[in-house]
Amino acid sequence: MPLQLNSSAKALRRGLGVALLAGAALLGATVGGCTSLPENVNRPVSQALPPVQDGPLAPFARDNGGDPSAASATTARPRSGFMLVDGPQAAYASRLALAEQAQRSLDLQYYAIHADASTGRLMRAVQDAAKRGVRVRILIDDFHSAGRNALVLGLADTPNVQIRLFNPLAGARASSIGRIVVSLGDVGRIQQRMHNKLFIADNTLGITGGRNLGDAYFGLGDAGNFVDLDVLAAGPIVQQMSKSFDQYWNDERAYPVESLVDRKEMDSIRDKAAESARSGAGSHPQGSPSPPDGEPRPDARSAAAFGDSKAAQRPGWDEKPMDLKTVKFVWAPSLLLVDRPGKIPADEQAKEGPSPAKPDAPHGEMPAGETVVEGLLPLIAEARQDLVIVSPYFVPGDQIRTALAKARERGVRVRVLTNSLASNDAPVAHVGYARHRTDLLDMGVELYEMRADQAGLRQALGTGSGVTGGMGESKAMLHSKFIVRDGRVLVIGSMNLDLRSQKQNTEIALLVRSPALSTQATSIVEKSLKEGAWKVERDPASRGALVWRAPAGSGLQDAHTEPDTSASLRALLWLIGPLAPDSML
Q1: What is the structure's pLDDT at 276?
Q2: Domain residue ranges of the chain, discontinuous segments joined by +
Q3: How many whole angstroms separate alpha carbon 526 and alpha carbon 518?
Q4: Cα separations in angstroms, 134 against 88, 158, 159, 232, 241
């Protein structure tokens, strides 16, 4: 099925760097001053509460055994527990378990939270926690909190729930496009987003990875679903995750929702969502492409009331929380990589660049460089045998390309799994990757591109990543973000290996020194390389032109153009390619 270009949130945001920037100079003077953000905002400072000492989550604060093969100089760091969360059902069930068992606090930090079926059930659990006295803080990047997704902001009406919006756009929330238009005069700032993902319960258990909260991340999207990988963490590292949350929560870029959305506007949003659901408007037709980065437009089944208790009852879907008592953690030394909030200017006049990390932090700050992506450079430089990179948007800048070239000179095998053009939810991002493809192959990097025409998600990224039980046959789109070095060190988080993650968005990741976890992650990706990905090579029979080798046993033929795409899409991207700098993709 040919992939069509669409105009949903992420495509628009990436498009700002390609098309809107060209008109910003002309339009900014006209519309830039129409609406502004509030000044002198009251932001009460709050900090993470201490870990619980008793209750269902308390045992997870203690080291229950290490990974013996992880012994190294870094074992002086306190060990923490980790479990890879592989598959949408486990990803949902683990978050639901944290919400239901939290006794003291819940801290959620996300790039996007969608008002749809799966998230409605999850947010009801968060509301229930608040009603039993749990302090809830929710920090959301502001870019997607418009239209129906603004319904999430209504949770702030619940006692014990506080919501803040990071790096907000000015203007009413009726339309994402309208907010972008009135912000064209500030296009540089709105290009920069908080991409971090955290779900922390009682400062004791925490989840991070690539997933936002929404149907397309939990295998429930009608047209497309994201293949992702998370990690559930326990022990001391969670307190560092909480420290990171506090830095963002108390930053001047985080606005309490009540300073941006008054009750009249919130009531209007609820009324429009209910009316849309009653009339059936807003549904997306079966088979149409999912909006980028899991920004599905909720259909009438889930949009009427964000808290509809039956919204997520779909065939094969299990809403049971994970039984945390059965979780087998791997205990190993770790490091938290996190960008400072100051990477995003507080306003267009403050462009001093990213704030450096504190090198003297005792457990879990940046090891080198000023950003998460730059912090990965030493990891690549230390590779001696094997480097596995999974990045849905792979647009390496000069530093990453140089690091990969030097790794190849040392004889390191480098394998990269990224999206094909057909599986990429933001096709314009593929332009930046495609322009470097030949050079990467020539330096000896092995490139794999995920197939979009999966019969389901089961084959997309290992056996656990699939949707089972007849939940539909949506297009699979890679969204996992992790690196494995020499089978001993795993980095997993929100970052892509692209200049947007390196220079603009804020990111977070966990670096874990554990052969056991590294082996698990490598096994997951190697299954995908064999069964669910095209291998891109130079074709000697075609004078070195690119050829996409079909997975063995797939029944597919090798392709000599971008597989499963239309000529019109390929032509369009060829035309806009020269206008799309890597830094804006």
Answers
A1: 64
A2: 10-55+82-303, 336-350+363-584
A3: 12
A4: 26, 11, 10, 21, 19
What pLDDT is recorded for position 483?
A: 98
Contacts (Cβ under 8 Å, ≥6 apart) of 121: 96, 309, 311, 312, 319
CA distance 340 to 352: 13
Q: What pLDDT shows up at residue 61?
A: 78
Q: What is the structure's pLDDT at 73?
A: 43
Intervals of the chain under pLDDT 70: 1-35, 63-76, 276-316, 347-369, 453-474
Pairing of strands 545-549, 533-539: antiparallel
- Whether 13 and 191 have beta carbons less than 8 Å apart is answered as yes
Asked if 424 and 289 touch (Cβ cutoff 8 Å), the reply is no
Query: Which of these CATH numbers, 3.10.310.40, 3.40.1010.10, 3.30.870.10, 3.40.50.11540, describes 336-350+363-584?
Result: 3.30.870.10
3-class secondary structure, 239: helix
Q: Which architecture characterizes domain 10-55+82-303 according to CATH?
A: 2-Layer Sandwich (3.30)
- CATH topology of 10-55+82-303 equal to that of 336-350+363-584? yes
Q: What sign has the CA pseudo-torsion 136, 142, 143, 145?
A: positive
Q: What is the per-residue pLDDT for 523?
A: 95
Comparing C-alpha atoms, which of 491, 48, 482, 504 is closest to residue 244?
48
Residue 195 φ/ψ, nearest 5 degrees: -100, 0
Q: What is the bridge-based pairing of β-strands 198-201 and 205-209?
A: antiparallel
Token pair 């930090």: residue: 109
